[in-house]
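User: Structure with zinc ion, tokens only please.
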Amino acid sequence: MSEQLGAKRAYDAAGVERAIRDLLIAVGEDPERDGLRDTPKRMACAYAEMFAGLHENPSDHLDAAFDIGHEEMILVKDIPMYSMCEHHLLPFHGVAHVGYIPNASGHVTGLSKLARLVEGHARRPQVQERLTSLVADSLVERLQPRGVIVVVEAEHLCMSMRGVRKPGSRTITSAVRGQMRSAATRAEAMSLIMSGR
Ligand SMILES: Nc1nc2c(ncn2[C@@H]2O[C@H](COP(=O)(O)OP(=O)(O)OP(=O)(O)O)[C@@H](O)[C@H]2O)c(=O)[nH]1
Ligand SMILES: [Zn+2]
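Assistant:
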């Protein structure tokens, strides 16, 4: 299982508010001016959402599993995804595609749980490669499927609005496990992912 660190402590909204106020001062702003007065509080609310994944075990969403005897590929594609690059604390966002082949008992999870799994791993300081692997490894661990494929396509704002400044460039990462590694199965999954584009 790829390493993912969870929360070291409970979310401290007051601490985030203080830090944002200090940040505004440090960049040369006046945190008391009208437009900024409530910004630390707003950011504390926003960060609670954006880093909510730190305070859950995303794999737990997959406990909502049932046997329906379906043993062929299940793929949810174009799941919108927002995460925060851990190097710059700037967003990277795009879509995730998550597919798996259930095991012989046809053990499957709810479709929405695949999107919840992505959210849980995305809503924390993250890098795209680890996000991709963690989603795949959660599925392997909890569903014991025959195969898994996860593809994430994202634009990193740290590459768009600053630094190298290449807006529109997209990074594509994949994690493939088990039978999904076979050339034919992988090609089938990729053609489903690419269809309609
Ligand atoms: N592999 C990987 N790199 C990332 C991800 N998010 C951001 N990065 C990169 O992390 C690197 C950090 O490089 P540094 O040289 O330490 O930071 P920097 O001086 O701000 O780098 P520049 O962005 O090139 O200006 C940059 O190349 C980013 O593009 C990610 O999800 N995966
Ligand atoms: Zn970055």
